[in-house]
Amino acid sequence: MAATSRGTTPVPPESRPRLTVLSGPSGVGKSTVVAHMRKEHPEVWLSVSATTRGPRPGEKHGVHYFFVSDEEMDKLIANGELLEWAEFAGNRYGTPRKAVLERLEAGEPVLLEIDLQGARQVRESMPEALLVFLAPPSWEELVRRLTGRGTEPPEVIERRLAAARIELAAEPEFNLTLVNTSVEDVARELLALVGVV
Length: 197
Ligand code: ADP
Ligand code: 5GP
Prior knowledge:
Blueprint: E1 4-5, E2 19-23, H1 30-40, E3 50-51, E4 66-67, H2 70-78, E5 82-88, E6 91-96, H3 97-105, E7 110-113, H4 116-125, E8 130-135, H5 139-149, H6 154-169, E9 176-179, H7 183-194
Parallel strand pairs: 1-9, 2-7, 2-8, 3-4, 8-9
Antiparallel strand pairs: 3-6, 5-6
The structure holds adenosine-5'-diphosphate and guanosine-5'-monophosphate.
């Protein structure tokens, strides 16, 4: 069942999740929140996904994503190298399995920032994962953020908004909802959840 949380809740170490999945519609602020968490706490480990999408200005291979060709993505999938993968708004995205499993085996917390389809796959394969849904304060604000980011042409924004309607409807599937009104507040809440502060 989803719960809406708006304050910082202390989480005792024994009940801290090892694997946390952060999902939510495109433009809600997932990358911004994660970047804020990592600026203050560089030790927060985020899985770097593979994608067939091209880099946005400023995005670096191996840091924001592994930017791969369609053929390379086919191979990653065929070789079972991805923990989960999905097609989102015309591109494929997937989580490299090895790095995540190594971290989990070492008892270190892992954070995945992935779409709804990926979150569902993780829930199936790793039911112990904590699924966090990042929600916009309103639909209008989501449209404003996605458009205001200025990184996608209008037809891609339309595809992402169509996906967003489906993702928003899936919120009850998540363990917890955080409303992204304030980046600082959400980052603080997530840091507490993953056990960093
Ligand atoms: P996502 O990773 O979920 O697709 P981004 O992190 O790229 O979203 O954020 C989309 C846009 O919204 C960016 O321009 C970002 O600066 C802005 N944004 C993110 N969080 C907030 C917030 N709490 N208030 C206002 N703008 C925000
Ligand atoms: P963007 O192109 O805006 O970076 O990402 C588009 C969507 O793909 C976002 O919802 C993001 O969370 C998701 N995404 C990024 N990496 C992965 C991944 O490895 N797997 C899945 N399933 N989704 C991902």
